[in-house]
Amino acid sequence: MPKVRFEPDGIEIEVPVGTTILEASNKAHSQVGSACGGVCACSTCHVYVKQGLEDLSEASDREEDILDKAFDVKAISRLGCQSKIEGEDATIVVEISRESRQAFLDEHPEIRAALKAAAGGGR
């Protein structure tokens, strides 16, 4: 079964083939944004695939068009909602982009507040 690890948090989860990176992040409770709900209409699930790019579905023209709206796009950039895991024994290592993590925290103010309080900023 494929594995996905989310960096820099080190969260790892096993998921079935055909799962998207965004679906894996939701199951793992990793902080990947998804303002559009995963329908390839925004770039908030922008991630960097550090390992296992060859085990993902190919990027569509639509995904590449949406990625053009993202910040700091690299050759290893993908949208989590469009990146389906195809390799049976794949290990995918994903770095969550700053914009994606910020989008997640904007979408979940209760988590942002809890993190701020844990860091000592909620006094």
Structure description:
With 123 residues, the chain is of the alpha+beta class. 28% of the residues lie in helices and 20% in strands. The chain has a 5-stranded mixed sheet with strand order 2-1-5-3-4. The longest helix has 10 residues. The protein is globular, with a radius of gyration of 14 Å. The model has no long low-confidence stretch (mean pLDDT 95).
Overview in brief:
It is built from four helices and five strands; from the N terminus they run E-E-H-E-H-E-E-H-H. By secondary structure, the chain is α+β, with helices and mostly antiparallel strands.
Overall geometry:
globular
Helix content: 25-40%
Proportion in β-strands: 15-25%
Tell me the span between the first and last alpha carbons: 44 Å
Poorly predicted regions are: none
Report the total helices: 4
Which structural class is indicated by helix and strand composition?
alpha+beta
Strand order of the largest sheet: 2-1-5-3-4
Sheet of most strands = 5 strands, mixed
Overall radius of gyration: 14 Å
Tally the beta strands.
Answer: 5
Question: What sequence of helices (H) and strands (E) makes up the elements?
Answer: EEHEHEEHH
Mean pLDDT: 95
